[in-house]
Design goal:
Number of helices: 13
Shape: globular
Order of helices and strands: HHEEEHEHEHEHEEHHHHHEHEEEH
Largest sheet: 8 strands, mixed
Strand content: 15-25%
Structural class: alpha/beta
Strand order of the largest sheet: 1-2-4-3-5-6-9-10
Oligomer: single chain
């Protein structure tokens, strides 16, 4: 099966395209679905029915309580497997809660190394899972082991994402601050990620307890932090709380500068844009131009920083979900081209 046909299989199955999806269902083998473990993490593997030596794809979910069992993620994994790839979807630390942490990056690297023992592995992601895939691909431990990094809209600069989550603004090219209507769930995910990255201690525990009681659909998830006091609970936690509780764009830079140097280093380490020069494989990003969480500028900045990164802007997606409209149907041409490039790169062992 050539790359163009494989791309059609994935698009038809994942997007449930009329006529084409049923045709794919009868013309490709049903993948064998297995519960397994990879690098010590629970995982689901989707094994193509008619291929003995299929290349591996590591698929990372975004923020969803269902994790690797989310129906649309399962559908995508099945489509990629029907196209001839062995797909593994692991449960990584904090990812289902929207946390991007160094533990998650290291787990991604270890999972990819385990799968890459039999050849190179494609790193595929949805939303924050794409950010993890980018961060893992930048690690020296995976040099020569990754074929391609591909995914949907994600963030590439955690500092700027914290700015957006707390003040409703982001930094555009040239340093201009612009308003952006990000959904409130972003603020909760960002706060969770910041909290998870703090040093262990009473301060982090107090922040974690405050966030634990916040529902995913809370319209103002950081409200409780604005009434929290961390007197005597450590400089790092207090500075992080001040930053997360702030809503004034004019104060953000000063509050960020007040973070301990080690905390700022942690934020940089979780920002793919900071080490984009380390990318040595093709990067394909499929981006919603008006994403409900991540400004388009994050993907475009990565493409400017790395000649290997390519951004496909399409209205066929609403964040990570398929849109159902005439415009979205027309946009599927661009999605098909994106999938063709990803599959062609991922097929090289």
């Amino acid at each position: 099966m050539d790359a163009a046909l494989r791309a059609l299989v994935v698009a038809a199955w994942a997007f449930r395209l009329p006529l084409l999806a049923p045709l794919v269902g009868v013309s490709t083998a049903v993948p064998r679905q297995e519960e397994t473990r990879v690098a010590g993490h629970p995982a689901t593997a989707y094994v193509p029915g008619r291929l003995e030596q299929a290349p591996y794809a590591l698929l990372l979910n975004g923020a969803t309580p269902l994790g690797r069992h989310h129906p649309r993620l399962v559908r995508l994994a099945q489509g990629v497997a029907r196209a001839g790839f062995r797909v593994v979807v692991p449960d990584l630390p904090g990812l289902a809660r929207g946390e991007v942490t160094w533990a998650g990056v290291r787990s991604t690297v270890i999972c990819a190394r385990e799968l890459a023992d039999e050849g190179r592995v494609a790193l595929l992601g949805i939303s924050s899972g794409t950010t993890l895939a980018l961060l893992a691909a930048e690690e020296p431990d995976l040099a020569g082991r990754v074929s391609v990094v591909a995914g949907t809209t994600c963030y590439t600069d955690l500092r700027d994402l914290i700015r957006l989550a707390t003040t409703g603004t982001y930094e555009a090219e040239g340093g201009e601050l612009r308003r952006y209507p990000a959904g409130p769930f972003l603020a909760l995910c960002v706060a969770r990620s910041v909290c998870a990255g703090l040093d262990e201690g009473p301060g982090r525990e107090a922040l974690a307890q405050a966030l634990a009681s916040v529902a995913d659909d809370d319209p103002d998830p950081l409200a409780r932090l604005r009434h929290l006091r961390l007197v005597g609970l450590g400089e790092e936690a207090r500075a992080a709380l001040d930053l997360l509780a702030n809503r004034d764009p004019r104060r953000f830079d000063d509050l960020y500068a007040a973070l301990p140097a080690k905390t700022q280093a942690k934020v940089d380490r979780l920002s793919p844009i900071r080490r984009a020069s380390r990318l040595r494989v093709p990067v394909e990003l499929l981006v919603d131009p008006l994403d409900k969480y991540f400004p388009l500028e994050h993907a475009l900045a990565l493409a400017r920083a790395s000649p290997l990164a390519r951004v496909t802007v399409t209205e066929a997606l609403a964040h990570a979900d398929a849109r159902r409209s005439l415009r979205a149907a027309v946009e599927l041409v661009h999605v098909g081209a994106f999938l063709f490039r990803v599959i062609r790169a991922a097929s090289v062992r």
